[in-house]
Structure formats: structure tokens, C-alpha cells
Amino acid sequence: MFVLATPIVDWNAMWKIFLVALAAGAGVVVFFGFMLLGLKISQGPATNRAAHDAGADGTQSAGPDRTPSAGARLGGFTLSLVCGLIVVGVIAVGVYAMTQKPKSKPAKPKSALVIPAGSSVRLIASSG
Amino acid sequence: MGSNLILVLVVGAAVCFDFTNGFHDTANAMATSIATGALKPLVAVLISAVLNFVGAFISISVATTIAKGIVPSSATAGVDGLTIVEAALIGAITWNLITWYFTIPSSSSHALIGGLIGAAFAAVGSSAISVHGIIQKVVAPGILAVFVCGIAAFVATSAAYLLIRRLGQEEARRGYRYGQIGSASLVSLAHGTNDAQKSMGIIALALISTGHISAAHFYVPTWVKLICATAMALGTASGGWRIINTMGNRITTVESPQGFSAESSSAATILASSYCGYPLSTTQTVSGGVMGAGLGKRGGVVHWPVVGQMVVAWAITIPLAGALGYTAWHIADLFGTNSEVGAVVIAALAAAGAFGLWTLSKRNRVTPEDLDRTNVTPELEAERAEAASPVPA
Fold this sequence. Notes:
Oligomer: heterodimer
Mean pLDDT of chain B: 82
Order of helices and strands of chain A: HHHH
Number of helices of chain B: 15
Strand content of chain B: under 5%
């Protein structure tokens, strides 16, 4: 009777896993993207920089100077730094979580294999 | 003497299983990084091998669960248990090699569970199997893993491509390639902490059942950790190029933002599930992530026939690995109960089968050079996208 009453899916755990996967998985990607964006803002558009550099050599016209202002550079750098730290922090939490795996829980509802007590051998296995 | 010989065979089979697990699952961590050219194939598998090796030493909770939490210490007293475990490992190894030959990513953990079910069924009968437990702990998580990680990767990829509009294609690709190296490394490390320890747990269990270590003062001997970590690392370093090709190139055409999204979502899902004590299959999680990432890009295409092949392989992994374990146990039993001759015979048959599959695989080899994208020009990339076919190589 107990076995029949045990739910097939632990929805409470699944829901938590889904939220963490969404928050951490998608979050890291978004913050990493903002980190790249911050770097881009702080350095200015690559094409214009290249054109500017080429112009300085006198081999090519420089075109309009679109070097970002000091404020924009600082803002971009700050955005990049903050987002980079968040990404590193999430990775650190992930590594920490690996070292802190929960100890084995009671196996009652977990058993995939149960060899009866009367048998010479008893084995229980579960998904790992 | 007999039990010692079978113990040696069990240890050997567990190490071989770790090796096949390594090359089977390298793709989970590194396929997308290789596919986008973030890493050269050989560099990718070497990084993955080192991190798998390190991961094997980070925690022994999985090994403890297998050796103590799952199997009661009194349960495997005698050689019966060892023969079952050997037959189970042989079933799992053989299934891993078959799916590798057919280039299909399938779960090594499910293969091991299938092998155990088959061998235990052969030894004890149907009362050994809890169908509810199998559905609850193996089948349901396997199905849900694909969707959980797939949705997370879909959202992540969609968000990444929204940002790319502001970043510019080339800068984004370059930047996300660096991100991919980090996220793939995290998946490798997580894989090492989980999968290398399954074999450690099995060997520890065998050592407990033969009285070599005490169940009351349980520990995993250093030599066991070393051989399992080394086998996993060597297996990983050997590549598994066939499955890497499927995961990285045949499910969808992966760009670096997609690869990063898939790997980040996979790492988050695997770690969250392990932490919640509700472990999900790495293979199915990463496959779901790659599919989600494929769909998350506007106009992205997922090759559903390939996905169909994978789903079929997942569905038949437990029954067929079980059938192999069942057969292995019965072959061993032909030579008498707990016979060391039988144990040697099934090990020899498995070795012959492995050699046969390896020989067959040479006919359509996939090499690291075939997969290297680090020097691919945009023109070649366009040709590759056109030539990409969902039909297996």
C-alpha cells in the first residue's frame, strides 16, 4: 500500500531543480552577455577603433572619432566587472555544491531493485 | 580463492565500465565546445579528462550511497552478489559499446541499472524488481531531465541572441566561446564527482561483501579512488569522437552562444538535481540542453530524426542492458553456482564482443581532425551547414 501511495515524481524537488536551472543556467548566460556588452562599451566599437588606429599611421583616413566618453567607459567597465563577478560567483557556488552533496537519504521510496529477504542475495539499486 | 578471483573480475569490470563511461560521456561536456571551435578536439578531451580525474576525488558521497546507503551491508554476503554485479557490469559495458558503435548518446547510469535489473532478475526472479522504483527513480527523471534543461537552455539562448543584437555577431561569438570553456569544464567536473564514484561504490561494495573492508568503518580505499579516476580520465581522453559528432553536429548546428547556453543550463540542472538528492541523467540533461539551444535561436533547426533515434535508444537502454545482464548471469550459471570458470567465461565473451565492435567501428571512423572547427572559415562553415544531414554517418 505504501508503494502505491508514493508519487511517481517528486514534484517539489523537480520544481526546485527547474527554478535553479532556469535562474542559474539562463542567468549566467545573460550576465555573461552583459559582461561582454560592458567590455564593448568600455572599449568602443571595434571597427571604429581599427579605423582610428589605421588613420593614426597615416595610411588610411581615420573617419569620425567615436571613442566613448570617460563616463561611458567607466559605466561599461563597471557593468562588465559586476556581471563578471556574478558569473564567477555562480560558478563558485556550483563548485561548492559539488563538494556538499547531500548524504544518502532513506532508501524507502528510492528502490529500483529489491531482492527479497528470504533469498540468499539481496540487492537494491537506484538511479545515480 | 574462488571469491577472490571473482572479486578481481568485478574490479576489472568496474574499471572497464568507468573507461566506457568516460568515452561515452565526454560528449556531454565537450561536444558543443568542439562543434563551435571554442576548443580543439584533443585539447577539449584532455581538459575534460583532467577535470573528471579531479572530480572523482572531490566527494565520495555517491560512492558511499552505492556501497552503503543502497545496498545493506549484510545483503551481499557471499559470492552470489559478486556474480550478479559482474554480470550487471558486463551488460552495461556491452550496451555502452553498442550505443557508441551506433553513435548514439545514451545514459551509462541507465545501462548500469539495466544490467543490475537483468542480472538480479536472472538470479532471483521477478520479485527482485520494483517497477514503481524504476519508474520513479529512473524513467521519470530521464524524461523530465530533457524538458527541464531544454526549457532552461531555450530561455538562455533566446536571451543570448537578444543581447547579440547589441553586441555584434563576431564579438559575441568570440566572447561566448570563452564562456563555453568555463561551462563545459564545470560539466566535466560534475561528471567526475558523479560517475567515477559509481564504480568506486561498486568496488567498495564488492570489498565489503568479501570482508576486505568493514561496513561499520566504511571508507573507499585510495587505490580504488585512483584506479577509478584514472580509468574515467583515460576513457574521457580517448575521445568518444563518434558520440561527440552526434551531440555537437547532428542534433543541431551549434553556434557559441547556443553551446554556452546548453552547457550552462546543463551544469545548473545537474548540480541542482544532485544537491536536491534527485539525480538526473547527465546524457539526457545535456541532450535536452542542446535541443533547447537549437530551438532558442530564431530559425534554428533541430534534426528530429536524430532526436528520435536517441529517444528510442534511451527507451531501450534499460531493457536491453537488462537482457545482456540477464544473459551474462545465465552463461556464468551454466558452469555452476558461483563458479569462477563461469565468471571468467562471461568476462572473456565481453572482451571478445568489445574487440569485435571496435574492429567494426574502424569501417566508419570519426577522427578528431574531422571534428576540428577551430580553423573553419565562414565559407567552409556555410558549406558544412548545407551538407549537414540528419541521416547517420
